[in-house]
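[Solved] Which block belongs to which protein?

Original post:
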Amino acid sequence: MSYSKILFLYISLLVFSCSSSQNSVKGLTWEEEIAAFQNALNKQYSSKVTSPLDKESFNNFTGHDFYPTKASYRVKANFLKTPGEKVFKLKTSSDRRPEYRKYGILRFEIEGKEYALSVYQDLATSTVKKYKDILFLSFKDLTNGKETHGGGRYIDFKIPTTQVVILDFNKAYNPFCAYSNKFSCPLPTEENHLKIKIEAGMKLDSKGK
């Protein structure tokens, strides 16, 4: 698979939602926003143009499984930018090693305990004008391999304009490589392995792995 194809597929993961996870969709309640997010994912996977599913799985696809929407997984996070970080090669689900740079840290609480997630900038997508403000946010948690994809999940995230942002795990979704080995997906860094069950967002579909 060519690099341009891989870049397109990676970007396609980030654009099905009209807004980033830290911003609300104008005119919608929070519950309606999550429903719209889920519908957009189902629409993406139902399209022959954007679906990662093989022919058999595509023909049998009736929609994703999601956890019930929970307000407790929509948290306020403090964003700290981390300038001066070195470029590194991020592991993926293939032998591809794209260049990334750590951009910042999100600190938040769930059930009274403090956690942190790092967000990264893909040097390749940062050169594409339309996507230059998109950051990479992925994580693993204690549901992986049981109720959710074993390789972790993603959350869409844009460069914040405020110090406090909304981090909504109800918008967590599987990468394309959860459905096919032909895709090369960046993996969560070890510092983004959360020691908690995140029972929100997309679950492991029967056709996923």
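(Second protein starts here: sequence line, then its structure tokens.)
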Amino acid sequence: MSEKSLSELLSIDESGEEALARAGVRTLRELSEAEPEALAMASGVPLDRIKEWQQRARRAGAPKRRNPVVTGWKVAIVGLLIAGLVGWISLSIAGRKMERAVQMQREAESKLEVEVKFGARKALEELRPARLALHNDNWGEAADELGAVRDYIELMQRVAAKGSQSEVEKVSKEFEQLEAAIEDKSKNAMDDMTALEGALDELMRSE
């Protein structure tokens, strides 16, 4: 990768480059592979601008995205951890900064809630091919398709704030039941699929 900065390579202003760096993105590869919604949230840069920069990065020779699930969540989690760390440091500085520190903590928790809902939406999308395979009695394919769903649920468990932990746990239990039903080729597998979809949809719509 070239030693030139992103601002030089892609004509990004320095403030934009700094925002990307705070979200853990410093190279063409990292920019190209990042999940745009997650990067926009972590960096504070508008989504349309992120997408434009990613297009420039790919034209500049960055490799195609290889693992958007892991990379996107990595960027989001790094950004959220930074926000949380800043909040806790502020807590220890002085009493007059306590209110601001609490506010930052709440903002970080709010961002975590958004990430959980994002994961629920992506998990629902990944369930569609599994449902189709199950409908066609293709049990092996249905089990394989659950792999991506499992990745999103595990990530949701890692970032879930206190307010959504119980709902995420419910989703996890529904997933385990569906996984077992498919493994056993149970006649209840389709009902378990519907129950998991319902739990994910409920999580997405929760306040």
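Accepted answer:
You had them paired correctly. Confirming on the second one: The mean pLDDT is 80.
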